[in-house]
Amino acid sequence: MDSLVVALGLSTCSCGVGAYLLLGMCDHSSPTHDGTLSPECKADSSPLDHQPGPFPGIVDILGAGGGLLEYRASLLAGKGFAVMALAYYNYEDLPKSLENLHLEYFEEAVNYLLNHPQVKGPGVGLLGISKGGELCLSMASLLKGITAAVIINGSVVRVGGNLHYKGSGPFPGIIDIFGIGGGLLEYRASLLAGHGFATLALAYYDFNDLPKKFDVIHLEYFEEAVCYMLQHAQIKGPCIGLLGISLGADICLSMASFLKNISATVSINGSGFSGDRVIHYKDSNIPPLGHDLRRVKVAFSGLLDIVDVRNDIVGGCENPCMIPIEKAQGPILFIVGQDDHNRRSEFYAQIASERLQAHGKEKPQIISYPGAGHFIEPPYFPMCPASLQTFLDKPVMWGGEPRAHSKAQVDAWKQIITFFTKHLGPSPKL
Ligand SMILES: *[C@@H]1O[C@H](CO)[C@@H](O)[C@H](O)[C@H]1NC(C)=O
Ligand SMILES: *[C@@H]1O[C@H](CO)[C@@H](O)[C@H](O)[C@H]1NC(C)=O
Ligand SMILES: *[C@@H]1O[C@H](CO)[C@@H](O)[C@H](O)[C@H]1NC(C)=O
């Protein structure tokens, strides 16, 4: 016999029948080992120094075949780890299907190990293959007390079935809208979802069967998205939040002004104006402010600077091209880059503030970042100093000084999460 493995399973494990705890035992490379069980090689001796435990703990999870497989745990136990082989379905009285797994079950297993006198804390490790690897990734992401995880051929997405955890919905809802680049960008929505918000990344043109171009912004399309969110079982009503950048920000401001059940809006470099397109909702049309390309400047680099192309705002905050933001039922957070070369977003935010106050509303929160450009993205995204502007079909500069812009991105993200948490209610703790 090469090694001794003791199964402390079933009867002593509180976390369900589907688990065996294996404490690993003797060092077969020990000089005293002669092929028979040496006196010091006892069930509770650790392999290296022949001292009793505690041993480092590992939870071992196999794949979608189900049942309880102990061989890998046994082999690991032979190397001096306290290993729990954990079944999670299709075993004894465990569920017969993978449709609805609950992370609490796995949490209990981790806690069982952490509290076991033979397991050395402060954390435990995880080993998973295939579906088990996927589960280990979720455990490592959401549970406390996991210090290392090995994933063999796991997937980073859930391949099938639902995994529930105590934070499971309903969640506060947010619709996330990008700018003139079109298409569907999901990264910001994914990041928000990681903070417990049910987030809809909403494309509105140049994606699948959506139009390739548009001259009128029909708010009815966006209203449908709001209704979809509000009737969704995983979304906590009665209101949702909006997050938009650039043209997406102006769409969000229009939605907040005309549609119901919007309780918080974040505008990143929005203008508060209908820029180059009519904004239409039912009987209302907001005419575009328009621009004059003769005001395009060419920078030394050859890039275009379009910061001054928009027409003057005659009449200030009562200009008819302005979005009637005073109708918005919830608060608006304006985030602006002072070095925005796409538009004078700080100036626009000031006008928006004037309009709100002129209509007896509270002064909105404006967070203005020196040295930040137009595209204020989530933290640690590279700054985009210039790119092809789809409207002009020419390379234009967006502004921003890398260091200041990067710092602004880190801070702006925190402010956005705080704002939504305050006005949409806290998300279930993830
Ligand atoms: C890898 O995992 C996937 C599921 O995540 C499974 O379908 C596939 O059979 C696995 N391959 C191997 C070699 O284990
Ligand atoms: C919209 O908000 C109102 C007032 O808070 C609420 O009564 C209504 O149920 C909400 N509508 C939906 C579809 O959630
Ligand atoms: C701000 O948004 C406007 C509206 O789409 C856009 O044209 C401009 O390029 C943006 N500026 C920045 C700095 O993002």
From TrEMBL:
Q: Which residues form the BAAT/Acyl-CoA thioester hydrolase C-terminal domain?
A: 102-170, 217-425
- According to the lineage, what is the superkingdom? Eukaryota
Query: What does UniProt give as the signal peptide span?
Result: 1-19
Q: Which InterPro entries match?
A: AB_hydrolase_fold, Acyl-CoA_thioEstase_long-chain, BAAT_C
* Name of one Pfam family that matches: BAAT_C
Q: Which UniProt keywords apply?
A: Signal
Give the protein name, as stated in the record.
Peroxisomal succinyl-coenzyme A thioesterase-like isoform X2
User: What is the organism of origin for this protein?
Assistant: Odocoileus virginianus
